[in-house]
Design a protein that fits this description.
The chain has five helices and no strands. The protein has 160 residues and is mainly alpha-helical. Helix 2 runs antiparallel to helix 3 (58-91) and helix 3 packs antiparallel against helix 4 (94-121).
């Protein structure tokens, strides 16, 4: 199996070069996970800046903590997807496909959770960082589409 480059242990440039290569180490599932991480980061930034002006907003403070957890979980999900997808490419087994599906479903659940957090904090976010919430939503849409497609492809692969 090709050496898996861990997202957490690499630079963004190296991750993108790996993603764009024909190595099969990182694929669209990993990219979708990074889109999720970027969305959470954009929202966390908007929350942090808003909290500078409203430091007593406990709901926003808790939501920011959840957003930071989503960043870590998404990066971990990127690594899991890369590892499991590489295993699938090597074995092409039903079990390997099921493992990828499971990882992608977890990421899809994280997308849903992030979407709910965005809805809950949107009215509280300062107007000067509203663009970060727009970006977070767009990144969630992209992450969702990628994970749904990957799950569908893996379901098809496990039956062939």
């Amino acid at each position: 199996m090709a050496h898996i480059i861990k997202t957490r242990d690499t630079s963004l440039e190296d991750f993108l070069r790996d993603l764009s290569s024909d190595s099969g180490r990182a694929g669209s599932g990993a990219a979708g996970a990074i889109a999720l991480a970027l969305g959470a980061a954009c929202a966390a930034k908007a929350a942090a800046i808003t909290l500078k002006h409203a430091p007593d907003n406990e709901h926003l403070r808790q939501a920011r903590g959840q957003l930071l957890e989503h960043i870590d979980a998404a990066i971990e999900g990127s690594d899991d997807d890369s590892e499991l997808f590489a295993r699938f490419l090597k074995r092409r087994s039903r079990l390997a496909a099921e493992s990828v599906i499971s990882a992608d479903q977890k990421l899809l659940e994280r997308v849903d959770e992030l979407t709910a957090i965005l809805e809950s904090i949107d009215p509280q976010i300062r107007k000067n960082v509203a663009g970060d919430i727009v970006a977070a939503r767009a990144l969630c849409v992209a992450a969702r589409a990628i994970q749904i497609e990957n799950i569908a492809e893996m379901r098809e692969a496990r039956t062939t």
